[in-house]
Structure formats: structure tokens, C-alpha cells
């Protein structure tokens, strides 16, 4: 919804909150229901109501638990029954500088200041550990905004008695805890307050009259940040940046002005701004964001512009280049199809408002940031929060290469008469076995972002996945696929829970980048083998339809399962006897985990 | 800015904040007259009014305003 996309107007969000909520709730489409416990050190009422808008807009339907006023510590240390039975999916500890209890004073000795720092940190660590032990779900913790007065002036920043210095040390310790603990995330209030303007942020009237820790108009930006973390944790991030070229990646029109005529590089301020933007885009690519071109241009000119010696980007940085004279909405759809992704995974960057409008209107779900003036491009994309990074795996770094290898495979496929011959020519080799700790991040990530080849669309948090990993009640398989063009990484996950003599397949997913490679057959072969080894006679599969997973509706049938139940909503249950099962996959060589 | 204009704009703000197009403000309107006007919504309302008229109420004014008429009076005074 336009009102909720950066750069949103906080005034509009505050004033029209009820109407916005009504409109969001009227929208069709699937929603992920998530339980969020907000443990506040100040009033949380409007925070929660605003956070709800941003989450609804991202397809997440939140249910909230809110602490009684400022009861964050008590709730964390001694969860009341209402919190215990709530069983949160996420806990957000909303504390601010107003909640620091052990401020140093100028009369303290060095030793006393150290003790106060330790006491304050101890309080927080005790909460985190208590919550982690009790709930095993992701924790979002605010760090601290800078203090709203400086008793020592500039000295406050470096003297150990200064609140500014004390706050910075606490934030440093919080950051270290975050780096050392999976499932613990900081909401960078320090940055947000500075960005908003500390003087306005720290409105004492808001605190003294209403016990809000920040000024009322800062609430949208503040909760937007929390929403971005939550969206990222539940796989609602964007994956692709589709870029226009002329006046987006360089100044001028390469087809008219020629390569030597476009503005990019170090010559002028404008050229430098485009260079800075290109460098930013290149860093996004390093983060695993796929770059594509969507430009009205002759392809030859597009490549010439991207090869400009002063540019930061190169043609090979792009997974896909669509430079033609088709409408851009069509090119965006084709880009999504070519990458086996949904259009809603795409961010479309174009300086031309008319092009933005057509894509926005024709391809729902694509994020179209407002790019006005090259000097504002980075901010428009960076602050949209759509690439917020909470988990980061080695596969992210290589994603661009993998998709490119896919393009090579597609080109080869065209030259084979028979599909089986093509598959064999790929010289595929898979590792299929029980989970390894090193892959848990990637496996969890896959459960949160695979929508199409996903039978149950069951999502897992890091903590839930660890529970599955450590439990003897499950049979777990991950599949990693390598072929002559490259390593696809971990692409398939199956989790089955033992139920008497049967195995209930609670999760079966596969990345769409390895569709039609018979990888699913290799997974099934291994699953049947494991079941037989453990005396499980029946495989029981479930299909829960969503608007996105139609492609696997008939998967179990194609495997030779027989249907045992069908619900009015289209959900189906399937069974297969493992005793008479014969392996199906003939084109992939399969091995197990490396022996230590 | 005359009183009528202030009331018209205030009326619009109230309708949006409470999501109720049937609201008709009079100088005598108080929190008791509008169902959702509780202490939590009060701050939303104050914030929206401040933004509409590009002014800030003082803390003392917020706690002493008795009805919409007094609110409009402060706005008019500040606008001068």
C-alpha cells in the first residue's frame, strides 16, 4: 500500500491509521499468522497498532501480546501465564534509554562505573537467557538511542561518567551479544533516532505525559524498522533488483548520446552520483541480490553502456538482461518467469515515473521505489527495507553465479534431442543425508522462502529447526546438487515425523532452480530407504494448497502414492508402502554426508 | 483563519482519526461524546491536529483543554 512504502508520511499514517487498517484487512491473499510478544519499558499501544499496519502490508497477520505498562523485566524473568500460553513466534523487547537503571554519575569512581555497566548488562543478559530458554524463538532487542542531554557537553562522549559514553558501551556489548547468538537481533534505535533527529525524537512531553519513549511522529519510522526485521525473518524479503539503464544507471541516453556521451565516472558531480549508485548496486549483488536489466534499448547499446570503462558495474554482474522495446510490465513478468521467482520478489528501479506506474499497476507485488534525482537513488532503495538482512548464508554470496549457470544449462538443453540424454549430460551428483549443523541456516532460510515447490508451506524459525535437528522423532534429509556447470548448494529439504509405523512428511520443499532435474526422485529414493532401515512401513504425504504451490498438487500422485483423504479446501493426504518401493532416480549419482 | 474554517478542518481530522464520517463537532464536544476517544486515542488526535495546523500545543494546554471549543481557541490564538 502506497501510504506504507518509504518515504511514507508519518502524519498520514497516524491520522488515517484506522482507515488504512480497514483497507489492508479487506485485501485478498494469503497471510502468515504470527504471534508477537512486545515486552515494553514504555507505552507500546500505538507502536503495536502501527507495526500491525506494516506487517499486514507485507502479508503477515500479527497477533500481539503486550506487557502491562513497563513490565518488560518481570515478564522476561518470570513470564506470567498469559505470556507462557501465548507461545510467541517472536519477542520484541522494547526498551530505551528511559529504562537504563544504573546511570553513572560524576561522583562515581572508575570502579563504580564499571560495576554499573556490568549491572545494567547483567539485567539484560538475564532477560535474554531466560526468554531464550523458555520460548526458543527469535528475540528482537532495541539498542539505545543517544541521551537527550549531555551533562559534560562534548566530554560526555569520552569520559566514563558521561551518559553518551555509557550508552555507546552498552550498545557495543549488545552488538557483541547479537554477533554471538543466533536468533537474537538488534533493532538499531541508535541509528533510527539519529536519522530522525535526536532533538525531536526525545520529546520530553511525550514521555512525561504519555510515557512514550520517543516523539509520536517517530513511531512509524521506528516500527517500520521492526517490521523489516520480522519480514526478513519470515522470508518476505525481495530477491531481485531490476534496473532501467538510461538516467538510472548513468546520465543520458546511450542510444542517442553514444557510450562516450553518457555521464558516469568521476568527471562531474552528476557522473559521480551515478557512479556511487552503481557501486551501491554492486554491493547489493555481493549480498546475494540478483541484478537484472529492464530497459528500452537495443541490447548492443545496453551492453556498451554497461561496459563503460568508468562504470562500477559490468555486464557480467547481471543475471539477466532485458534490453528491448517491449512494455516493461511484460519484461518484468518474463524476468520473474526466467528466474523461477514470483514477481513479488522483484524491486523495479526506474527514473521514469510513467514506467514506474505501468509496472506498479500491471504487476502487483513488485516494489517500485520512487527514484527522483540520482542523488536520492541510494536512499530510496536502502531505506525501503526490502533487502533487510537478518540471516546470511554462504549460498547468498554465490546466488548470482548459480542463476547464471542455470542460463547456460538452458542453452544446452536446446541442443539435445531427448531430455533424459540432456539430464545425463549434466553429470549430476547429489549429497542427500541427515542435516549437518553447517547447513542449518540455509535449511531454515529455504523453509521460509520456498513457496512454489512446497507441499505444506510450513515455516520454521532457527530455534524450531534446532529442535527438529536434535529430536530422534524425525527423519530429516537435505539435498545438495552439483553438476558440470556448478554447485547449486542445498536445494531440497524433507522433514518427516515418525508416527507409529508411518512417517508423516511434514515438510517437502525444493528450490525452483533445480526443477525438472529428477532431484525430487532422488530425495524420495533416499527417504524410502531411510524408512525401511528404521522399520517404517508407510510414507504419508500431505498437500496443503496455497495460491503459489499449485505446481506440486499432483506430486505425490506422480510418485505413485495413493490418495487417502481429501478436504473441501483442496488439502489431500497420500500414502505409499515402503516395502515394495523401487528406486526411481536414474540420472543423479547420490552420496551421503562426508565421513569425519 | 476564522473559527468556521478551524472547525471544518478539525472536523475532518476527527473523522479520520476515529474513522467515523458521522462526527459533527460543536464547541461543546468532549471526549464523552465520541465513543473511541479515550486516553490512548487522545495523543493520536493531538498529534494529528498539531500537524494539520502546523503548531504545537503546550503541555499545560493539553491537560487543561475541556472541550473542542477550547482547542479551537488555542489554535486560533497560535495562528495569529
Give a description of the structure.
The complex is a heterodimer of chains A (596) and B (80). With 596 residues, chain A is an alpha/beta fold. Chain A has helices spanning 10-15, 17-26, 45-57, 72-77, 81-86, 110-135, 163-180, 189-196, 198-201, 204-210, 219-233, 254-257, 269-286, 299-306, 328-338, 353-362, 377-382, 394-413, 419-425, 440-449, 462-470, 519-533, 555-559, and strands at residues 32-40, 60-66, 90-94, 139-142, 184-187, 240-243, 290-296, 320-324, 346-349, 428-433, 474-483, 486-499, 502-510, 538-543, 562-566, 572-577, 588-591. The radius of gyration of chain A is 26 Å and the shape is globular. Chain A starts with 9 loop residues before the first helix and ends in a 5-residue tail after the last strand. In chain A, 42% of the residues are buried. Chain B has one domain (3-78): ACP-like (Non-ribosomal Peptide Synthetase Peptidyl Carrier Protein, Chain A, Orthogonal Bundle). Chain B has 4 helices and no strands. The model of chain B has no long low-confidence stretch (mean pLDDT 90). Chains A and B meet through helix 1, helix 2 and helix 10 of A and helix 1, helix 2 and helix 3 of B.
Q: What is the compact description of this entry?
A:
The complex is a heterodimer of chains A (596) and B (80). Chain A is α/β, with parallel strands linked by helices. Chain A is 41% helix and 18% strand.
